[in-house]
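Writing this down once: the sequence line spells out the residues, with the fold written below as integer tokens. I am pasting one below:
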Amino acid sequence: MPDDIVIAPSTLRDFVAEALRSRGVPTSDAESVSALMVEADVFGYGTHGVFRLRQYLARLEGGGCNPAPEVTVAHETVATALVDGDNGLGHLAMATARDLAIEKAREAGIGWVGVRRGNHAGPLALYVRPQAENGLLGMAAAVGSANHVPPYGGTDLLLGTNPIAFSAPSTGPDPFVFDMATTVAAMGKIKTLLQQGEPMPEGWMVGRDGKPLTDPAQKSEGFLLPIGGPKGFGLSVAIGLLAGVLNGAAFGSDVVDFTSDTTSPTNTGQFVVAIDPDAFGIGEDFGETASRVFNEMRASSPLPGHEMVRLPGDGKTVAAQARRNEGLKLNPALRRDLNELAMNCGLTKPFPDAAAV
């Protein structure tokens, strides 16, 4: 298949929804999850979008993920809540948590909503960007869906990539959206390189001998490295406490590898926060002030060899709209994988065979 094949987001959403329905997911849930998965690709988070469909289908087929969950609010106060995902697809619980956090922020100034009994839910940016688009600040974090990191100086795998994300409104075209793993690289990037047959850069992983590991096929034989050494380790632990322990969700040795184990519930823990600037007496002035400071940063003279300064989230709005209008260009390895999944699900292939082009 040529590299220039594109697919309309609506067509990809329909395919993903059909694939999920083939594994017992109700239509409304399948459409909600597929919309979020494709939205991840639309905004450029390819390692956490439809690339993850194979893993989700495997867990649905293996019984590790509940295809028809009843997502409920297990505990609630004016400004906080705990959502129980009933071991369903993680997007459902996280979308519920996000929407409830925004509702509470409008009422109480802040909304903090935890999730227990969840699953992998794609990029956290999906659950903080809406806050910024509605004039609020957002934050979200999650316990990683597998342990790939030892405690700093140790050798036992007790931590995941434990991502965290922030967002803030701005009067410019793009809100501030910062989404990162607490490791040098997210495991999704390594899986993407493995799918494409490409090596990892040095510094992402080390083997048990402490030497650099660059073959993504050997990822299970080494350790992901935390950002900033002990600082990244400490941040990852803090996220585990807030997203895992606080919610009665898995952390440490309780974490289930959702890729290698398709039969066990993961009890993934996450949280979503929304903050209303009005609660601090600043209101719409927040976005104007933030935009002024952002522009000062962008105007900073770049170091030799560096491009102009960019803020997290810059260019995302225009790029996303272009993908909506022109279609998504997925890499050949992913296209082949989606075609194979289509056959496994008894569906029409979303991409043409090479011989038909």
Observations:
- Residues 143 and 199 are 26 Å apart (CA to CA).
- The chain has one domain: 9-183+226-293+312-356.
